[in-house]
Design goal:
The complex is a heterodimer.
Chain A: H1 2-20, H2 25-45, H3 67-98, H4 109-114
Helix pairs in contact in A: 1-2, 2-3
Chain B: H1 2-13, H2 17-20, H3 27-39, H4 43-51, H5 58-68, H6 70-74, H7 80-106, E1 111-118, E2 123-129, H8 131-154, H9 161-180, H10 184-202, H11 209-240, H12 245-249, H13 252-257, H14 261-275, H15 284-287, H16 293-302, H17 305-314, H18 316-319, H19 323-345, H20 350-371, H21 374-405, H22 416-419, H23 421-435, H24 441-454, H25 464-488, H26 505-523, H27 525-540, H28 560-577, H29 579-588, H30 594-616, H31 621-642, H32 657-676, H33 680-700, H34 704-725, H35 738-763, H36 773-784, H37 789-797, H38 799-825, H39 828-833, H40 848-871, H41 879-897, H42 899-904, H43 910-930, E3 940-943, E4 951-954, H44 955-981
Helix pairs in contact in B: 1-3, 5-7, 5-9, 7-8, 7-9, 8-9, 8-16, 8-21, 8-26, 8-27, 9-10, 10-11, 11-14, 14-17, 14-19, 16-21, 17-20, 19-20, 19-25, 20-21, 20-25, 21-23, 21-24, 21-26, 21-27, 23-25, 23-26, 24-25, 24-26, 24-28, 25-28, 26-27, 31-35, 32-33, 33-34, 34-41, 34-44, 36-37, 37-38, 38-43, ...
C-alpha cells in the first residue's frame, strides 16, 4: 500500500512539474493543482497510513490514526481552492487584456519599466 | 479541563523564560505555550489589569485615541460638526485621563502599568508616566485639542473630514504611546506608527503631486531612521539585558563602558536626527509642508518632530556626557540651527519659512541637550515648551493667511495689517517671541541658549560656538521680522488672489490661546519655573540636578548672553533692511540642495536594484519556475547523497485489488494529461478523476473529513475552471521545442522520483520524536468536548490557525471580486460584452428538468449542510465541509436558472457573509477574554431541552459557524465573480427561471 501511495505522489509531482513548465496559463494552473494534490497527499501521509482507524473517539476503538496532519491538510485543501481561484482570475485578466494566454512576458522588461512615468 | 491546564501552563511559563526554551514536560505543553504566545493575552494579564483600575489607566490614555480613531472615519456622513466634536471628545477624554494621573506624578511617583505579552523576548506592553512623559503627553493632547478646533474650520467642504481626523487621532495615539512607553521595543512600534500616520497626513490631499512626493520623502527618511534606531535600541537592550526603559536608565555606567555604546549611540541618533529633521536629514520637513496646515502645525512643529528630541531627553541620563555624544549631538544641533535660520530667511513661502525656522529651533534644542550640562537641560525643556507655543501659533497664522488670501507667497502679500487685524496681532506676538524679543517667552529660553553657548567650546577656538549661536539668533530675528514685516506691514495691495479678512473665532481662537501662553510665560516666567524644573529633573534623573540658584527670570543683569542677544536683534533688523542685496547674494551663491542629493541617492538605489533584479527576473515565468525546480532538486539531491537512511521500522499495509485499480486510474489519468493537456476540457475531466481518487484514498486511509472536503472542493474547482474555460481558448497550441520538452521532462521525472523516494522512505519509518498528536487524542473529549479529533483540532486546539485561514480565504475571494470589478470597468468590458461564444449554444439554456431538479435538491442540500455542520464536533463533518456543500447547492441554482435570475433572489451580499463569518469567529475568540482566558479558549457544557436528548453545546460551535459562513461566502463570491464576467450584450437577461416553461403564457 505504501508503494502505491508513494508512487502516486511521484507521478503527480512529475506531471505537475511538467505542466507548470508549459507556456500557456491553463496547463500551468492544472499543473499547480496536481502539485497541490501531491503535496496534500504527502502531508497527509506523513501521519503514516492506517486503514479503519479514523480519529473519531469511540469506546471500542483500540488505536487511532494521527489526526494532526489531517487537520492541517483539511485547511490546506480549502485554501488551495481560494488560491487557484485567484490565479485563475489573474490569468483571465491577462488573457482578456493581451489577447494571448502566454505565461511569459513577451516584452523586454527594460522597455516596460522605462515607459513608466518617473516618480 | 483544558482551560485550567492551559492557564496553569501560562502562569508557569511567564516568569521562567528557561522553560520556554524547550524544557516542557510534554510536547503538548510546548504547543500550548506556543499557542499562548500567539494568542496574546493570558489569564495573568487579566489580573494585572484589575489591579490597576484606579483612576484612568495609562493604557487607556494611549488606547483612547486609537479606539477613537475609528469614530470619525465611520461617521463621515454624520456631518462635519459631529465629526469634529467626536474627535475633540476623544482627545479630551485622553487628556482628562492624563490630568487624573497628574497629582501622583507631581508628587514624584512614577506611574507604571505593564501587560505581559512575550516575556521570553522581553517584549511587554509596559507604560510609565513620569514628569517628562507627562509634559510631552500634555503638549500632544493640549495642542491636539486646539488643532482639532482649528482643523474643523480650516478644511473645506470638499475634504473628507472623517478621514482626516481618523489619521490625526492615529497619530495622536502613536505619539502619546511614544512618550508613555516603558519598553523600548514598544516605543519603537509607536515610533514607526508616527512615521506611518504622518505619511498619511502629509499625503492627505492625494490629488496634489507635491503632497504625495513629500509624504514619500518623509516616510523614506524617517522610516530609514526608524530602522537604524531599532538596531540601536536592540544593542542598548543587549548591553543592559532588559528592554525596559526604567532598567536601561539605571545603567549609565554599564552602557557607557560597553564597546557597543558607540554603535548604539550612532544608530539611535540616526533615528532621532531623521525624526527631528537635523542636518543633514532636515530636507524632508520643508517638503512635508504640502500637508494641510493643521498637520504642519501639529506634527511638524509641536509634536512629531519633537519625538526625536523627546528620545534624546529620555536617554539623556544614560547616553549624554561622553565625548561622542557631545560632538555628535551638540555639533549637529549647532550646524542645523545656523543653516536652518539662514535658509529660512530667503524662503518666500510662509510655510517653508516656518519649516526651516522649525529646523533651526529644533537644532537649538538638540544643541542644548548635546552640551550635556544641567543648565542646558533646563534650557532645552524650557525651549521645547516655548517653541511649541509660538510655532504652532505661527503655523496656524500662516494657514489663516493662506485660507483667506489664497496665497502664502510673501512676495504677493503685504499690508495685511489693516485687513486682518486679529491675525496680525497673533502673528506679532508669536513672531516676536520667535525673534527673541523680551517680554515674549522665546526670549527667555534663547537667552539661556546663548548663555550656554558662551561657555561651550567645540572644534577649535573659543569664540566659534558663541559666534555661531549669535549668527543663528541673528538670522532667526531677521526671518521673524521678515515674516511680520513683509506679510502684514507695508501698503495694502490691490492684487491679492482673494479678498483677505479675519476668519471666524474657530480659526483665530486656537492660536490666540497659544499667544496668551506666550505672553504669560514671557512676562511672568516664575510661574512656569516649577513646571520646567520638575520636567528637567525628570529628564536628568540621577545624572544631574538643577543648578543652585537658577531661576527663570527676565533680567539677569548685563551678561554675555544679553550682549549677544542685542547683537542678534539689532543685526536682524539691519539684515532685513538690507534684504534685497542679501537675497541677491543668496541667489548667486551656489548652494547644494539636500533634495537633489536625496533624489540622486534614490535614483542610484533604484538603478542598483534594477541591475540586480532584471537579469534574474526577465519576465519569463517558465524560467523562474525552471530555476526554482532545479534549485530544489539540487538541494534535495545534496541532502539525499550526504545523509544516511535508517532501516525501515514499519510493516507495510497489504495491497488490495481495489486499491491497485484506484492507483491505476490515478496514474493513467495523470500520465494521460502529459499527452492530452492541450485539449483543455479533456484535461479537466482527467483532473476530476485524479481528485476523485485522491478523495477515495483519504476515505480508505482513515480520513473521512478529508475525503468529504476534497470531494466538495473538487466540485467547486471544476466549476471554477469550467467558468474560466468559457473565456480562455479551448486548446493550447503546441509550441515548445522538442529540446525544451525533453529538458522539462527530465526535471519533472527527477522531481517525481525524489518525491516518490521521500514519501516511500517516510511511510515505512516511525516518527523519530514523539508527536503532539497523542495529546490531541487524549484531550479532545476531556478538554474540547468533541470526539471528532480533527474538528476539535481545527476549532479548538489550533483555532488561531483556522481563524487566520478563514481570513485568508475571505481575502482571496475579495481579491477575485476586486479584480473582476477592475476588469469589468476597464477596456476589457466592451470585449466581454460583445464576445461571441466559439461553440453553438443550446437553444434551451436553462432546461426545465434541471431547474426543477435543483429546486427540489436545494432544501435537501441545506438539510445535509446543517446536519454535517451539527455533527461535525463528534463525527466527520464540520464548518468547512458544510460550507462547501451549501455553497455547491447555491451554485447549482445559478447553473440551472442563470446568473441574473439567481442574483435577483440573493438577499445577502457574499462580502457580508464572509465578514459575518470572520466576525463571529473572532467574537467567539474574544469571548474567552471575558472569563479571563486566552483568545479562542473554548468551553462547553451539556444542556437538556425536554423532548430532545441531552446534547452538548460548545463555544467551538459558534467558531465553527464563523468558519461555515466564511467558506460559503468565499466560495460563492469567487464563483459569482466569474459568472458576472460571462454576461453578454447579445443575451437578454431572463426574468424566468427556465427558458421553456409549458405552464407560462408566452406573450411575445
Amino acid at each position: 500500500m505504501e508503494m502505491l501511495v508513494a508512487s502516486a505522489v511521484g507521478v503527480l509531482t512529475t506531471v505537475g512539474i511538467y505542466l507548470v513548465l508549459r507556456l500557456r496559463t491553463f496547463p500551468v494552473i492544472v499543473g499547480v493543482s496536481l502539485l497541490t494534490y501531491a503535496v496534500n497527499v504527502f502531508l497527509f501521509a506523513s501521519g503514516r497510513l492506517a486503514v479503519n482507524h479514523p480519529p473519531i473517539l469511540r469506546d471500542e476503538a483500540l488505536s487511532y490514526t494521527d489526526p494532526l496532519p489531517q487537520a492541517l491538510v483539511l485547511t490546506a485543501i480549502v485554501i488551495s481552492f481560494g488560491m487557484t481561484a485567484v490565479v485563475v482570475v489573474v490569468a483571465l485578466g491577462a488573457y482578456l487584456g493581451n489577447d494571448n494566454d502566454l505565461v511569459n512576458d513577451p516584452d523586454n522588461p527594460e522597455d516596460a519599466i522605462s515607459k513608466e512615468p518617473e516618480a | 479541563m483544558t482551560i485550567q491546564r492551559l492557564a496553569k501552563v501560562a502562569l508557569d511559563t511567564s516568569p521562567a523564560p528557561a522553560r520556554a526554551r524547550g524544557s516542557f514536560a510534554t510536547p503538548a505543553e510546548a504547543e500550548f505555550a506556543l499557542r499562548l504566545s500567539r494568542g496574546g493575552n493570558t489569564a495573568k494579564n487579566a489580573r494585572t489589569l484589575r489591579q490597576k483600575e484606579r483612576l484612568m489607566s495609562l493604557l487607556l490614555i494611549v488606547l483612547v485615541p486609537f479606539l477613537g480613531a475609528l469614530l470619525p472615519g465611520l461617521m463621515g456622513r454624520a456631518g462635519r460638526q459631529t465629526c469634529a466634536m467626536t474627535t475633540l471628545l476623544v482627545t479630551l477624554t485622553s487628556l482628562v485621563g492624563l490630568i487624573s494621573q497628574a497629582p501622583a506624578v507631581m508628587s514624584g511617583e512614577v506611574v507604571t502599568q505593564s501587560i505581559v505579552w512575550m516575556p521570553e523576548l522581553g517584549l511587554n506592553l509596559s507604560l510609565m508616566l513620569d514628569g517628562l512623559g507627562m509634559f510631552f503627553a500634555a503638549l500632544i493632547l493640549g495642542i491636539g485639542v486646539l488643532i482639532i478646533i482649528y482643523g474643523r474650520f480650516y478644511l473645506s467642504r470638499d475634504d473628507n473630514m472623517g478621514e482626516f481626523f481618523t489619521y490625526l487621532l492615529l497619530f495622536q495615539g502613536a505619539m502619546v504611546g511614544i512618550v508613555l512607553s516603558n519598553n523600548v521595543l514598544v516605543l519603537l512600534v509607536f515610533w514607526e506608527l508616527t512615521s506611518l500616520s504622518s505619511f498619511l497626513l502629509i499625503g492627505y490631499w492625494k490629488h496634489l503631486p507635491d503632497g504625495r512626493q513629500g509624504a514619500r520623502m518623509a516616510l523614506t527618511v524617517t522610516g530609514m531612521g526608524g530602522l537604524a534606531m531599532i538596531g540601536g535600541m536592540l544593542l542598548l537592550g543587549r548591553i543592559v539585558g532588559s528592554y525596559d526603559l526604567t532598567a536601561i536608565l539605571e545603567n549609565r555606567e554599564a552602557i557607557q563602558a560597553s564597546p557597543l555604546y558607540l554603535p548604539a549611540l550612532i544608530l539611535i541618533l540616526l533615528g532621532c536626527f531623521t525624526k527631528s529633521a537635523q542636518f543633514p536629514f532636515h530636507f524632508w520637513l520643508p517638503h512635508a509642508m504640502a500637508a494641510p496646515t493643521p498637520v504642519s502645525a501639529y506634527l511638524h512643529s509641536a509634536t512629531m518632530v519633537k519625538a526625536g528630541i523627546f528620545l534624546l531627553a529620555r536617554l539623556w541620563p544614560v547616553l549624554s556626557g561622553t565625548e561622542a555624544w557631545f560632538f555628535l549631538v551638540a555639533g549637529a544641533g549647532l550646524v542645523t540651527m545656523v543653516i536652518g535660520a539662514v535658509v529660512a530667511l530667503f524662503k518666500d513661502d510662509l510655510k517653508a519659512l516656518l519649516a526651516f525656522s522649525t529646523i533651526s529651533h529644533l537644532g537649538l534644542i538638540v544643541f542644548l541637550l548635546g552640551t550635556g550640562s544641567s543648565y542646558a537641560a533646563v534650557a532645552a525643556v524650557f525651549h521645547i515648551l516655548n517653541h511649541a507655543t509660538f510655532k504652532a501659533a505661527l503655523f496656524m497664522t500662516a494657514g489663516i493667511v493662506d485660507h483667506e488670501a489664497h496665497t502664502r507667497d510673501i512676495k504677493r502679500l503685504g499690508g495685511l495689517r489693516k485687513l486682518m487685524p486679529i491675525t496680525f496681532s497673533i502673528a506679532v506676538v508669536a513672531g516676536l517671541s520667535m525673534a527673541g524679543i523680551p517680554l515674549f517667552n522665546g526670549f527667555l529660553s534663547k537667552e539661556m541658549m546663548l548663555e550656554e553657548a558662551a561657555h561651550t567650546t567645540i572644534f577649535g577656538p573659543d569664540w566659534l560656538v558663541p559666534a555661531l549661536a549669535t549668527a543663528g539668533a541673528l538670522f532667526s530675528a531677521a526671518y521673524s521680522f521678515r515674516l511680520i514685516g513683509h506679510t502684514f506691514l507695508g501698503k495694502v495691495r490691490d492684487d491679492y488672489p482673494a479678498k483677505p479678512h479675519d476668519p471666524g473665532i474657530g480659526m483665530w481662537g486656537p492660536p490666540a490661546v497659544l499667544c496668551a501662553l506666550v505672553l504669560f510665560i514671557g512676562v511672568l516666567p516664575q510661574y512656569a519655573e516649577p513646571l520646567v524644573f520638575f520636567v528637567a529633573e525628570s529628564v536628568m534623573g540621577e545624572a544631574g540636578a538643577i543648578p543652585e540658584g537658577l531661576h527663570l527670570k527676565l533680567w539677569h543683569g548685563v551678561t554675555p548672553a544679553l550682549i549677544m542677544s542685542i547683537i542678534a536683534v539689532g543685526g536682524g533688523l539691519i539684515l532685513l533692511l538690507l534684504y534685497r542685496p542679501a537675497e541677491w547674494t543668496w541667489k548667486v551663491l551656489p548652494v547644494p540642495f539636500a533634495k537633489s542629493i536625496f533624489d540622486g541617492i534614490i535614483a542610484g538605489v533604484v538603478a542598483l536594484a534594477r541591475g540586480v533584479i532584471h537579469p534574474l527576473h526577465d519576465g519569463s515565468f517558465t524560467r523562474f519556475a525552471g530555476l526554482f525546480f532545479v534549485a530544489v532538486l539540487a538541494l534535495a539531491g545534496h541532502a539525499w547523497l550526504t545523509g544516511s537512511v535508517a532501516p525501515p521500522t514499519r510493516e507495510g499495509l497489504p495491497m488490495g485489488e481495489v486499491a491497485v485499480a484506484g492507483w491505476l486510474m490515478l496514474v493513467v489519468s495523470a500520465l494521460a494529461l502529459i499527452w492530452y493537456h492541450r485539449n483543455r476540457l479533456f484535461a479537466l475531466i482527467l483532473m476530476g478523476i485524479i481528485g476523485l481518487i485522491v478523495s477515495i484514498g483519504f476515505a480508505v486511509f482513515s480520513a473521512p473529513d478529508l475525503a468529504m472536503t476534497q470531494l466538495s472542493v473538487e466540485v467547486a474547482t471544476i466549476i471554477l475552471l469550467l467558468l474560466a474555460l468559457n473565456f480562455l481558448p479551448n486548446t493550447s497550441p503546441s509550441e515548445s521545442t522538442v529540446l525544451k520538452r525533453v529538458g522539462d521532462g527530465v526535471v519533472a521525472i527527477l522531481g517525481g522520483l525524489m518525491a516518490f523516494g521521500l514519501s516511500y522512505h517516510l511511510l515505512l519509518r516511525d516518527f523519530v520524536a514523539p508527536t503532539i498528536s497523542d495529546y490531541h487524542l487524549e484531550n479532545s473529549y476531556k478538554g474540547g468536548g468533541g470526539t471528532n479529533v480533527v474538528n476539535v483540532i481545527l476549532v479548538d486546539f489550533r483555532g488561531f490557525d483556522t481563524f487566520g485561514e478563514i481570513i485568508v480565504l475571505g481575502i482571496a475571494a475579495l481579491v477575485i471580486y476586486a479584480l473582476t470589478q477592475a476588469l469589468m470597468n476597464g477596456p476589457v468590458r466592451a470585449k466581454l460584452l460583445n464576445r461571441r461564444p466559439d461553440k453553438d449554444l443550446a437553444g434551451d439554456m436553462h432546461p426545465l428538468m434541471m431547474v426543477v431538479l435543483t429546486r427540489v435538491l436545494m432544501p435537501m442540500v441545506l438539510l445535509v449542510g446543517v446536519y454535517i455542520f451539527l455533527r461535525g464536533h463528534n463525527m466527520p463533518g464540520g464548518g468547512f465541509i458544510a460550507g462547501l456543500v451549501v455553497a455547491i447547492g447555491v451554485v447549482m441554482q445559478y447553473m440551472a436558472s442563470g446568473f441574473y435570475w439567481a442574483q435577483e433572489r440573493q438577499r445577502y451580499p457574499y462580502h457580508g457573509i464572509i465578514g459575518a463569518g470572520v466576525l463571529i469567529a473572532g467574537l467567539t475568540g474574544i469571548g474567552a477574554w471575558f472569563t479571563g482566558y486566552p483568545f479562542l479558549t473554548s468551553s462547553f457544557t451539556y444542556i437538556h431541552i425536554p423532548p430532545l436528548e441531552e446534547f452538548e453545546i460548545a463555544s467551538a460551535m459558534a467558531f465553527d459557524l464563523g468558519v461555515f459562513l466564511a467558506v460559503v461566502g468565499a466560495v460563492l463570491l469567487s464563483l459569482e465573480s466569474f459568472a458576472r464576467m460571462a454576461r453578454r450584450a447579445d443575451q437578454r437577461e431572463s426574468e424566468y427561471p427556465m427558458d421553456i416553461d409549458p405552464s407560462r403564457e408566452e406573450t411575445t
